[in-house]
């Protein structure tokens, strides 16, 4: 079956630090990969996505590259801000599971000024 | 576009009472999902609809939970009778099609005392 494993948190960083959140996946077919972000008191929002191998998704300074050889989709940002404090979820969807999203457990990131 | 609208934002009720959560998806989206989020279990998919028809309700925890989608612009999740272990944040999400990114509402925080 499909599954997503992401780095456990919480992660605490200083402003302008480099952020990496690791995500690896197991899927039957050729999944699409997503990163969602959840700010306090809100629902999840799509941050970025990639639909095939070697695609790079990017948004708001965040990037993630679909690595089929390592079944990974690590999230990175070169210089975080306090406003990036949130919970980040890695997810995949695949035809074998009727395209239902499989979410990771979420990683809480806190950025200190 | 107003996004996915959920009501109420907060609900506090006593054990044994009936609770109804409401959701208005984004117009034109064919899929609607109900999720539950807790610290212990993370995000759990309860049920999803395609074109108003329930497709998979295997995540509904027990018979006390029921969901309906009488038309393309409205869905309800009902818990009867409610129990303290039902306390969680319940999210509704919609998407345009299979494999498309989900758009989440801001959730309903349910507290059952």
Characterize the biggest β-sheet of chain B: 7 strands, mixed
The average pLDDT of chain A is: 94
Name the overall outline of chain A.
globular
| Termini separation of chain A | 41 Å
Write a brief caption for the model:
The complex is a heterodimer of chains A (113) and B (113). Chain A has no helices and 12 strands. By secondary structure, chain A is mainly beta.
Structural descriptors:
heterodimer, A: 113 residues, six-stranded mixed sheet, four-stranded antiparallel sheet, B: 113 residues, mainly beta
Q: What does this molecule look like?
A:
The complex is a heterodimer of chains A (113) and B (113). Chain A has 113 residues and is an all-beta fold. Chain A is 0% helix and 50% strand. Chain A is built from no helices and 12 strands. Chain A has strands at residues 3-6, 11-14, 19-21, 23-26, 32-38, 44-50, 56-59, 62-65, 75-77, 86-93, 102-103, 107-112. In chain A, the strands form 3 sheets. In chain A, strands 2, 5, 6, 10, 11 and 12 form a 6-stranded mixed β-sheet that branches. Chain B contains no helices and 11 strands. In chain B, a hairpin with a 2-residue loop joins strand 5 (42-50) and strand 6. The model of chain B has no long low-confidence stretch (mean pLDDT 95). In chain B, strands 2, 4, 5, 6, 9, 10 and 11 form a 7-stranded mixed β-sheet that branches. In chain B, strands 1-3-8-7 form a 4-stranded antiparallel β-sheet, with no helix packed on it. Chain B starts with a strand and ends with a strand. Helix content of chain B is 0%, strand content 55%. With 113 residues, chain B is an all-beta fold. Chain B has strands at residues 5-7, 10-13, 19-24, 31-38, 42-50, 53-56, 65-71, 74-79, 88-95, 103-104, 108-112. The A-B interface holds A 32, 34, 36, 41-46, 49, 89, 93, 95, 98-101, 103, 105-106 and B 4, 42-43, 45, 48, 55-56, 91, 93, 98-99, 101-107.
